[in-house]
Specification:
Number of helices: 9
Distance between the termini: 30 Å
CATH class: Alpha Beta
Order of helices and strands: HEHEHEHEHHEHEHH
Structural class: alpha/beta
CATH architecture: 3-Layer(aba) Sandwich
Strand order of the largest sheet: 3-2-1-4-5-6
Number of strands: 6
């Protein structure tokens, strides 16, 4: 299996000879994706279609906290792979790192740090100061997808202004992953929230039973 850096070079996302003059903004989208749903896809499409980032690396996380009902990372990678294209790559290299700062430390090896944009939901920013090495994370570019019920500005007022960008026009979809998993378990209709390919994968592999 090719390493992420090798894949990125093939795709032209990494300029090993430093010959490119254009700046490519790379979004880093880390999450459990348990399961991947249309809320996740909407975030990816919004950031790409509005030119906020040029490419996105999606990184499904491993089960290092031993969460209940978190299916195997390989299944979550496979489900996210349905959304992979020339602008979206689903990572298979950094899934077992326990902390976000560890993943970003690895990503600055093939990339310029200034080209990386960590993607966060507004709910993530509430306890962001409790994340491991959060001060190190504040040295990266951060995109926060706003939602009406959270006053993001009140949480970031003491953070470096030049590092955090709030995406105000994004229309948040309120999807509860726990409820979604329960609906799948009991055979309820989830077609409003999960694409057919993902749902078929879930059924075939008997996930969330």
């Amino acid at each position: 299996m090719k390493k992420l850096k090798d894949i990125l070079i093939i795709l032209g996302w990494v300029d090993i000879n430093n010959t490119r003059s254009d700046i490519v903004k790379i979004g880093i989208y880390i999450g459990s994706f348990n399961p991947p749903h249309r809320g996740h896809v909407k975030i990816i499409n919004y950031l790409l279609n509005n030119g906020i980032v040029d490419k996105i690396i999606v990184i499904p996380t491993g089960n290092y906290w031993h969460k209940q009902n978190l299916v195997d990372v390989n299944d979550r990678i496979n489900m996210m792979k349905y959304y992979e294209n020339e602008r979206v790559i689903v990572d298979t290299s950094y899934n077992e790192y326990a902390y976000t700062y560890q993943i970003l430390r690895e990503l600055v090896k093939p990339y310029n740090k200034k080209d990386l944009y960590l993607i966060l939901g507004a709910d993530n920013i509430i306890d962001f100061d409790k994340w491991d090495n959060f001060k190190e994370l504040l040295t990266y570019n951060i995109l926060v997808l706003n939602r009406n019920d959270i006053d993001v500005n009140s949480y970031i007022k003491d953070y470096p202004e030049n590092k955090i960008s709030i995406i105000d026009n994004f229309k948040y979809i309120d999807i509860c992953s726990t409820k979604l998993r329960n609906d799948i378990k009991y055979g309820r209709d989830v077609s409003e929230y999960i694409d057919r390919e993902v749902y078929d994968y879930i059924i075939i592999h008997k996930l969330y039973k």
